Amino acid sequence: MKNMLLTALVSLSLSVSGQTATQDRLSAVQSEPEWLNMDAIRLAFADMKGMKGFDAVALQPAMDELEQLAKEGFAGIDKGGAALAAAERALALKQTILLSNPLLNGDKIVATRFMLGDNARRAMAPELGTQANNWSNQESARRRGFDAEIVELSNLRGKTSLRTVFKPADSASIADLKLHWDGNRVMFTSLMPDNRWNLFEAPLDGSGAKPLMEMLEPDLEFYDGTWLPDGRLIAVSNIGYQGVPCVSGDDPVGNMVLYNPADKNMRRLTFDQDANWNPVVMHNGRVMYTRWEYTDLTHYYSRIVMHANPDGTENKALFGSGSMFPNSTFDVQPLPGHSSAFAGIISGHHGIARSGRLLLFDPMKARKGIAGVMQEIPYRNRPIEDLIKDELVNGVWPQFIKPSPLNDKYFLVSAKLSEDDLWGIYLVDVYDNVTCLQKAEGEGYISPLVVRKTTVPPAIPDRVKLNEKEATVFIQDIYEGEGLRGVPRGTVKSLRLHAYEYAYVKTVSDHNWQGIQSGWDIKRILGTVPVEDDGSVMFKIPANTPVSIQPLDDDGAAMQWMRSWFTGQPGEIVSCVGCHEDQNRLPIPKRVAASQKPPLKLTLPEGGIRSFTFDLEMQPVLDRACIACHNGEGRAFDLRGGQKDKRGYGTSYLNIHPYIHRQGPEADMLVLQPYEYHANTSELVRILKKGHYNVQLTGKEWKTLYNWIDYNAPDKGFFQADTITSFPYKGYPQIDRRIELTNKYGNGMGVDWKQEITDYAAYLKAQGNITPVRPEPLPPVTPKEIKAKGWPFHAVAAGKDSRMEVELAPGIKLTFVRIPTGEFVMGSYKGEADARPTSKVKINKPFWMAEVEVTNEQYAALCPDHDSRYVDQLWKDHTRPGYVANAPFQPVIRVSYEDALTYCRLLSEKTGHRITLPTEAQWEWACRAGSDTDFWFGNLNADFGSKENLADVSTTDFAVSGIDPQPMKKESSWYPYYSYLPKSADVNDGNMIQTDSKSYEANPFGLYGMHGNIAEWTRSDYRPYPYTEKASAPAAYKVVRGGSCFERPKFSTAYARKAYYPWQRVFNVGFRLIIEE
Fold it and tell me: What predicted TM-score, i.e. pTM, was given to this entire model?
C-alpha cells in the first residue's frame, strides 16, 4: 500500500451551509495533502541526519507523531472536527521537519512578489513578469502595469516576515532575479525612465537600486543578465537587430553581450539566429545558457542548452542537440555539489509559457533525450516519457518556474500546484517532498533565492585576440562521429562553408520567403577548403560570424548538413574531433596531416563572397544549358529568367525546383543519415546524369547545381529591402544599423549582404551575355530485335507447393515464393539511356523470392537498433517528426546495401539457407512475371491504382499548412506552390506514403510491390548495358530497382534503374530477399 496520505482530500468539496470556518480551514490544506508523502519524508529525514546542523534527536518526536497520524488516517475530513484537525496537525509536523533543513538556517529568502489581486489564482508566469510565450526574449514582455517588488522573507520556520528590498516606480516589471556570490546584493531586469530594459543591482539592505550597464546606444536594451567572477557582466540584448523569423520578425531576438562596468567596454558574444536565455555561471567558471535555433530544424523542439567561456570561446552544445525531447529547457541552474548536473524547467513551444516541469539533467549520462535526464521533481520513480508534443506542459500540474538549487538534492522554486492555486515559494527535493514556504491570497512569488554567501567560481582568462578578424578551425578527423557513419575514408574531398544572415525585426521572413520548401535565412557562400586524406583539416574563417559546414564529395555535392552554426571568436582556435562526435567520449589526440601545416585560407567563390540567389547563380546555368529548348514554347516548361509572379518567385525557379529532393525548413531534429539529401536522390540530377537530351553541364555548372540543392533550393537569397526600410526599428534603418552595431561591438565584422549581391551582379555582367546552347542531337537508336524462347508468357500464380515460410523470430515469419527458370529480354529502348541496349538473359536456376520487401518488424528481429524514422513533411510548424515510416508493417527504409547484406548474413546463419539479394536480372525476371510490357500489368498509361503504390493523386496531400500541418484546400492561395511534387494526378492508389505491399495486387508470380511502395537494392554493380554480372573490378554504385510511392510510373518500370553508393541509406529504398538453391 502506498504511503500517499490524505488522498481523499484531493476530491473533496464542501456544501455551502454556514460552515465558513471549516471551509476556510479545509481550503487551506486542500492544495497540500497530495504532497504529504511519508516515504519521501522518511528519506529526507534520513538524509538530513547526515547534515551538519540538523538536530535529529529534537525532531524525532515530531517524526514519531507524524507516523502515528499517518497510520490512523484522515477519514471524515470533509466534516471538519477531529479528522480535519489531525490533517492540519500532520501538515504542520511535515512543515516543521522539512523546514528544519540546515540549508535554510540562514533564515532569509529573497524573491520577487507580484500583487495580483483577484487574478492571483488564474495568473500564469507572464503575470509574474516573464515573456508571454516560449519564443521571445524579455523585449517582447509586458513592461508596465504591474505591482511588483523584491522582498526579503525571514522567520521561515514561523510566521514569515516580509521586508521590501526594492520597488520600482511607475508600475515597472521586475524579471530575472539573481543573487551575487557575496550574498549581499541582487541583480534583476527592470526599466529605465525611457522605458528601456536594463540590468539593475540592489543591495539587500533596501538602500536602493542602480543600473548596472550604461546605455551606450539609444536603441539598445539589456536584460536577463549574470555577474561573472571577474566583475564583468553578461547580458542579453537586441544588439543584432534581428527578429524571430517564424513570426516575420514580430518579436526581436536577444543575443548575449559582455560588459565591463569598470571601463564601460562592451562586446557582442553570440551571433545566433534566435533567442539566448538565462546565462548563468557554472561551477567551473563557464557560462551555460539556452539557445534557440532552427536553420532547417523543427523549430518547436530546438532550444538547446549551450556552454561557453565567458569571452565566448569554446561555445558548444551541452544538452539537447539532436533530440526532440524536451522542446524547451529554461531557467537552467547548475547543481551545487555535482560536477555536471543541472536543473531546468521544460516547457513546450505553444501553450503554457515559461513554466513547466522541473527536471534534473546530467549531460555526462547522455547529451540528449531522456537518457540524459536524472529525474523529475517531484516524481522520482516515474519514468520519463520521450514525449513529442507541441504544448508539452498544458494540463500538467504542478507548474514550476525559476528553480534555485540549494545543493544537489534540495531546491527552492516558485510553483503553482494546481490550476486554481496560487504561485508560492516551495522547498522541493529529490525524494518527492513539496513544502510550502510562502504563498498568500492576491499575491504571486517568483525567483526565490536563499540568502547566503557562496563560493565564487574560477575566473577564466580571456582567450580572444581582438586585434584579429579571423578564427582558426581544426577538425581532427571528419569521419569520427555519427554524422558520417558508414562513409568510407577518403570520400570527403573538401568542405563548403557558408555564413548565415538572419531576419530583421517586423520584416517578411517566414519559411516560404526564401523559396518553396527552402529555409529561413540568407546563406552566404564563404568558400571551400580541401580535406586531408586522413580526414583532418585546419583553416581560417571570419570571426564573429555564424558559420556552417558541409562535407563535399568528389563532385562537390554535400554528404551531410550541419543545420546549425558555430561562431569563432577573434583569434580563437575552434577545435572538434569529427562530425557530430559524442562529446562524452574522450578524444584521443593523434598526429594528423592538417596539424603539420599552417591553417589554410578558404578558396573564395568566383566573384566573391555573397548570398546564394537563384537569379545570379542558377539562372545563368539555365540560360546557357537549358533555355534553348525550355523557352516557353511547346511542351517543355519555361526556364527563362526575368519573370516573377505576385509573390516574387521566378517562373524558372517554380518550374525546376519540384525535381529537387531536399529537407526544407524543418527537417528531423535527429542527426541526418549521411547522403539523406544527397544530390543523387533528386530526379533532376538523375536524368541529367543519364544524358537528358544530351544536355552537357560544365564542371562549374554541376557544382553550382549541387550548391543550390545543398542549400535547400532557395529562390531569393535576400530579405526584401523595402519592407525592412519601411519599418525603422527603434527609429533606425535596420540594415545599416545592424552593420554599424556589428562593426562597433563585433570587431568590425558587419556584413553588407545587399552590396555583396550588387557586386556579384556587376561581376556577372562584366562576363558578357550568355548564349544559349542547344544540345547536339543524340545519334538515333535503332532497337535491335531480340527474342527469347517462350517469352513473353502468361505466368500462373504460385501454388501451395511453391511457397515457403522462414521464421525470423517467434511469431515473425517471411514468406517466399518460388521463381522458375527461363529467359527474357532484359532492359528496354523505351526508357532512359541506361536501360539499353537490351540483351537476352537466362535464369538458369530457380530461386525463392520474398513476396514483400523486408518490413520494419522483420528487420528489427535481427537488427533491433535500426529506425526507419519518418517521411518528410512540407511546410513548417511541425508537431511531430513527419509521417510514420517505422510502423511494423511498413517496409524498412534507410538501410544501405551493406546493411542489407549484413541482414542476409545473419538470417542465413540463423536458418541455414543461402539468403541474399537478387541480381538485377533475377529482380527484373521476377518483376515482369512473364510480361514484356513496362509493368507486369501493362504499359505506362495503365491504371496502377489497385496494382502498385506510386506517386498518384494522393501525393497532393503533401501540400499542407497550419500548426500540425494538414492537407491544404485547393482554394488556398498556397496550394499551387505546395502541390508541386511530380505525380500521376489522374490515378488514385489510396496511399500517400509507403504501406503494406499486400494492400495491392500481386503479380502473377505472387510478388507484391515490385514496381512501387519502396525501391529495392540488388546485389549488381551499376554498369552500362548490355547486362553482365562479370566484371574485373567492383563499380562505385550498386543498382536499385523498382519505383516507390514518391515516384512516377516512368521511373518505376520493370527496367528502370537507379544507382546509389553501397553505404548510402536512402529515404525510399529498402530490400527484398531471395533464397538461392
Answer: 0.95
